[in-house]
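Submission checklist for the structure archive. All mandatory fields must be present; incomplete records are returned to the submitter.

[x] Identifier: protein-serine/threonine phosphatase
[x] Organism: Amphibalanus amphitrite
[x] Residue count: 220
[x] Sequence attached
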Amino acid sequence: MPVSWRGPRPAVTVQQLRELLVAPSRGAMAFPSEPYDEVYPGIVISDAATAFTLTLLRSLGVTHVLNAAHGIDNATYSGCYVNMHPCFYRSAGLALMRVPAEDAEECNIGVHFGDAAEFIDDALRHGGKVLVHCVQGMSRSAALVVAYLMIKQGMAVTKALSTVRAKRAIFPNYGFLMQLIRLDEQLASGSCPPVSTSEVKGRRPAPPTNSGAHRSSRYP
């Protein structure tokens, strides 16, 4: 059981976090060299193409998928969503959580930190393996994994970002980093982000089925 930190922490800025993220690539933003990487035991961050390849997910031992880019392209945001129907994963016996978010500074991804952390934590506590993806596996997916490490593993935001960056080139946008800083402050004060649905906790992969007619009650 990790020991969570509590109490006042030194203030950290978005600029400091960005410098931390680019330090391994000599001050320049780097892109992932691989489509997927295991960034923490049992947690894989990937691009969208990986999430569509069931044979690869099976070979990796993935049991849960967290789509951090759920949505349908529109005139404002084009090419930034991954719209995957739950039946695609249910047929393979995989659990799915979909987070509607765009990779934009104004996106309030922080409202999903609690639910995403519960989903990941539940999978790992029951021996599962989680694939967290967005489009490139750099910003939205990374922000949710970092939030999990902060909420459930007791890491400060700098430690959580460094842990993931050591395994994969990531670069959450300015707004996401600001929300992670706020999460850092919130946890330091002794409070935790809310979990909006009790159904996230205890969710298990559905047994494989040959029918695509079933819909997920949690994620329609």
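[x] Structure attached
Curator remark: The domain at 33-189 is CATH 3.90.190.10 (Protein-Tyrosine Phosphatase; Chain A). Residues 1-6, 198-220 have pLDDT under 50 and may be disordered.
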